Amino acid sequence: MTGPGERWFEDGALHFGLGIEDTFVPQSRPGERAIDEYALTDHYARYAQDLDLAVGSGATFLRWGVPWYRVNPARGTWDWSWVDRVVDRFAEVGLRPVIDLLHYGTPLWLDGQFAHPDYPQVVAEYAVAFAERYGDTVTDYTPVNEPMIHALFSGVYGYWPPYLTGDDGLTTMVRALGEGFVRSQRGIADVLGDRATFMHVDASMRYAGDVHGGHRAQAERLREQAYLVEDLVTGRVGDDHPLAGVLRAGGMADAHLAWFAEHAVRPDVMGVNYYPRISTEVFEEGVHHLGGFADPRPTQDAGVAGLVEVLTAAERRYGVPVMLTETSVTAPAADRVAWLRESVGAVRALRAVGHRVVGYTWWPLFDMYEWTYRHGTGPREDYLLTMGLYDLVEDGAGGLDRRPTPVADTYRELAADHAANGASARVAVPDLLPR
Predict the structure, then answer these.
(1) Residue 313: CA atoms inside 13 Å, Cβ hemisphere, count?
(2) Quick check: 16 and 327 in contact, CB under 8 A?
(3) What separation in angstroms does the CA of 103 have from each of 201, 310, 311?
(4) Is the pLDDT of residue 428 over 70?
(5) pLDDT digits (tens, 9 = 90+) for 325-379
(6) Which of 184, 186, 173 minimizes the C-alpha distance to 101?
(7) Which residues contact 201 (CB under 8 A, 6 or more apart)?
(8) pLDDT confidence of 432, banded at 50, 70, 90?
(9) How many C-alpha atoms does 403 have within 13 Å on its Cβ side?
(10) CA 368 to chain centre
(11) What is the CA 372 to chain-centroid distance, rounded?
(12) Residue 134 — left, alpha, or beta (φ > 0 → left; ψ -120 to 50 → alpha)?
């Protein structure tokens, strides 16, 4: 139980959560299909069953996103009918929603997407409209999921709309995303007051290999860049920030930086998304990669050592409790079970030596489809990623059944064990933790 003035994640417990993949990139053009993971995974039809599965697996919260492009078909026009049913179901089953307001993608009517000059106001209008409608029961928000992935895919790699590239594109994206982020969080707080909690979430990006030789400068920049949007919205980007010069060269005026400093927002929890097999990129001596989907660097499985590093780095940098907000491996069930046990063990070990890790999130609840579906032509089954507690299985009629795996059993066991025994729950822990 939380005490007077405490938030739910401040009760000393380790909270077990799940997520449903909710990427929405609804724009299409020749050679590029729209992505709506809720449509691909049959979640629109099976939302009630999916929330039941989350509860039955032992989760106490679910990271769940709103399909902005569907609920906001024109500026100032709203269709909340499906979201109404889902929010009602959350209440019926007693599951806490942590709302992803923006998990990639803008409505179809917003020309230029994130580069439209009205984007920050438009996304804030949406955030406030949601809070006004559901604020009596929904109090936990992630204003922007993985803003640096947004910035890279849409502003550096030219992979998603508005297809910008280079440092100019990066600056355009981080400024727009950052301003929209701040305006959304402030707008929600105006509606909900002290009842609102904000979980900021970004992807972890680690770099290994030739990072002290010929690639040193690039690796150092990328390490700082991984935090850029969060640094911006929390008012940490001043003249002494390592990327201040990059932003100014890309068109960020001193007045823009001053606005962020004056309107800074703070996370109640800093969320870290970490995938052991892909979150660490490897620089190779004498080999130059552009990075991104067009020319990716190889990756390294950094296991629990990488997980410990990214969680403690976020805790140290922002001075707030941290949460593992996404993790899994794309692999057979036995490998998923092994990573589930190892990663829960690492989180418990961090807590045992005093680190404020308040939650663990397996992502996703059920399998998802790879983002390369957007540029492909094959049926969805060609892009299936086996990552979930539940496998997705074609039902022969266009729908998808959810088939339980040993990963679901293990998650349920670990969540129940922690609920019953707390810090004394037995689990193998790595001997690599900072004191």
Answers:
(1) 18
(2) no
(3) 11, 21, 21
(4) no
(5) 999 999 999 999 999 999 999 999 999 999 999 999 999 999 999 999 999 999 9
(6) 184
(7) 100, 142, 145, 146, 271, 272, 273, 325, 326
(8) low
(9) 10
(10) 15
(11) 18
(12) alpha
CA distance linking residue 289 with residue 240, whole number of Å: 29
Tell the burial category of 239 from Cβ atoms under 10 Å away from its Cβ (0-12, 13-18, 19+).
Answer: exposed
Strand partners, 32: 29
Q: pLDDT band at 289, cuts 50/70/90?
A: confident
Q: 81-93 and 43-56 helices cross at what angle (nearest 10)?
A: 10
> For 58-72, what is the mean pLDDT?
98
pLDDT of residue 286: 84
The structure's pTM equals 0.95
User: Around Cβ 135, how many Cβ atoms within 10 Å?
Assistant: 16
Tokens of 179: 């301003």
Asked if residues 202 and 272 have their Cβ atoms less than 8 Å apart, the reply is yes
Cβ–Cβ contacts within 10 Å for residue 379, how many? 10
In the DSSP assignment, the letter for residue 190 is H
Return the residue matching tokens 């489809």. 369
Looking only at the bridges linking them, the beta strands covering 61-65 and 322-326 are: unpaired
